[in-house]
Write a structure and sequence with these properties.
Two copies of one chain form a homodimer. Chain A has about 180 residues and is mainly α. Chain A has nine helices and no strands. Chains A, B: GO terms for molecular function: DNA-binding transcription factor activity; transcription cis-regulatory region binding.
Chain lengths: ~180, ~180
C-alpha cells in the first residue's frame, strides 16, 4: 500500500495501474488481485492506511475553536498535494464504481461524520448550542461547501474560507426562531 | 448526442463506449472521434444538449420562494433517474479527467452559478437581503450540502431537505452582527 501511494504521488492516479504497483513492489500482479479486485479498491485502502489521527476532534470546551482546528487540519491533509489530487481522484472513482463508493463511505466518510456529530452533540449537551440545533444539517453545511469548492468549482480551499463557513453556520443556526 | 443519452439511460455510464454509440447510431467510430476526444467529452455535450430552461430562475420578487422553486426543479432533473446517475458519473469523470472538468465548469457549473448569483444580487438590490449579504458564500451554502449528499454520502435528496438548507442560510445570514 505504501508503494501504491508513492507511485500515485509520482505519476498521478490516472496513470496508476495494478501492474505498475506490482512491478514497483517486485511482486506478481495476481498477488495484488487476490486481495483487491480493482485499482480503486487498492487505492482506497492505501489512502486509508495514512495516519489520520490529525482528523480527530480536540475538545477544549470551545466548539468554534475546535471545529476550526479540526477542519483546517483536515483541509491541509485532504486538499493539498500530495494527498489532495489523489483524494479527488478517489472520489471520482467512487462516483463511477459503487463498490469503491460503499467502501469509501463505510471506512472514511461515515466515521469522520460521526466524529463531527459527536463533537457537535457534546457542545449541545454543554449548552454551547441551543437544544434545537440541527446536528445533521450542521454537518452538511460544514462539509458541503468545502467539497463543492474542491470537487465541483475546483478552487483551492483556504483557512479563511473555512472560517467564513463556520461563522455563517453558527450565526445562522443560533438565530433560528 | 441523443443516441448517447438513450444508450446511457439503458446501460449506464460505466458500460457506455464510443464504439457502442457509433454502432447504435449507425456511423463509424471515427466520425465520433473527429468531434469528441473521449467518452467523457461526448457524454458532457450530450447532457448539456438537454433542455435546461427549467433551471432558469423565476423572479416573483420573493427570493426565498424563487430559490425554492428553482432548486427543487434542478434537483428533480439532476438527482433523479434517468439523468441523476448519469450526472453523477459525469462528475466522477470530471474528477479523473481535467479536460472534462474544465468543460463541465465552463459550460454548466459556472453559468448556473452566475444565474444564482444574479438572482441573489437582485434580491439584495431590492432590499430583501442586507447590504452585507455574502453572495458567493450563499451560493456555496446553497449548492454545497446538496452536492455533498448526492455525491459523497450518496443519499437521495428531498424537497424538504432543500427547504432546511435554504432556511438555515437565510436565518443565518440575516442575523449576522
Amino acid at each position: 500500500m505504501r508503494t501504491t501511494l508513492e507511485l500515485g504521488k509520482e505519476i498521478g492516479y490516472a496513470k496508476l495501474s495494478i501492474e505498475a504497483v506490482a512491478a514497483r513492489a517486485g511482486v506478481g500482479k495476481h498477488t495484488i488481485y487476490r486481495r483487491w479486485s480493482s485499482k480503486g479498491a487498492l487505492f482506497l485502502d492505501s489512502l486509508l492506511s495514512l495516519n489520520k489521527s490529525d482528523l480527530d476532534y480536540p475538545d477544549t470546551g470551545d466548539i468554534v475553536a475546535d471545529l476550526r482546528r479540526q477542519i483546517h487540519a483536515a483541509m491541509d491533509l485532504l486538499d493539498r498535494p500530495p494527498v489532495g489530487p489523489l483524494y479527488r481522484a478517489l472520489i471520482g472513482e467512487a462516483l463511477l464504481n459503487p463498490q469503491v463508493a460503499a467502501a469509501l463511505n463505510d471506512h472514511f466518510i461515515t466515521p469522520q461524520a460521526e466524529k463531527t456529530l459527536a463533537r457537535l452533540k457534546a457542545a449541545r449537551d454543554q449548552g454551547q448550542l441551543s437544544p434545537g440545533f440541527d446536528l445533521d444539517l450542521a454537518m452538511d453545511i460544514l462539509s458541503g461547501p468545502l467539497y463543492f469548492r474542491a470537487l465541483i468549482v475546483q478552487e483551492p480551499l483556504t483557512h479563511e474560507y473555512v472560517d467564513r463557513v463556520i461563522e455563517a453556520l453558527f450565526t445562522g443556526m443560533e438565530c433560528r426562531p
